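Journal club side-thread
Mid-discussion, someone asked how the predicted structure for our own chain would compare to the paper's figures. Pasting it here so we can look after the session.
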Amino acid sequence: MYPTIEKMLQHASVRNFKPEALPLETKNLLITAAQSGSSSNFVQAYTIIEIADESVRREIAEISESAAYVNQTGAFYLFVADWYRQAEILRDHEQELVALRNMEALTVAVVDTTIAAQNMAIAAESMDLGVCYIGGIRNNLAKVAQILDLPELTVPLFGLSVGYPNFRNEVKPRLPQHNIFSVDGYDRQKLTDLSAYKATSANYYKQRTSHQKDTDWTQEMSQFLSEPRRKDVANFLKQQGFTLS
């Protein structure tokens, strides 16, 4: 097996880190790896913000409800979808910003940012570091934007904790390939036949090392999606200058 793929198949989120900061050389490598990802039309519409100030990190940990693995980790980064640089370019050229405000522009920035983050995550795990994505920053986007003094046309999407693991969880069993892969169209019957995965996921939840419970993936999804989440996100996007049209 290729070493990179082998590392990818071993991925599991780490939520218990040693209180040991990452060396500057390691952090520079992580940023370089993040920048090496693909970018639509090479727009590079993202910004990575390291949260080094402990008081700021505590505020974000409280917002995201993930104090244990935000406050104690080797480094903590926020990934921001960012068109502000291009807005400044357009202003310098006396052009309107309309091309930066619509849903396509936002989608491009979100994709660029996510690719950069996943590049960093894979690079970190290749160095035997652990990672954990922190989507909880979207619990209060307006507050996060205020804390970081974010300008218009920027959206903080998620955080990423990177550090030396105290403990690694077991690898969660993913959906079988027949549930996520189809050829020449959307095979509704095959892609939604979850009978095998229900059994596999139920066995995982029952036998994993911590937080064992009697459930399966479909039950977890039913509970998780029982009501809309973070309904203020659209309003925040509009406040940041996106038309969502």
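Post-session note: DSSP finds twelve helices and four strands in the chain.
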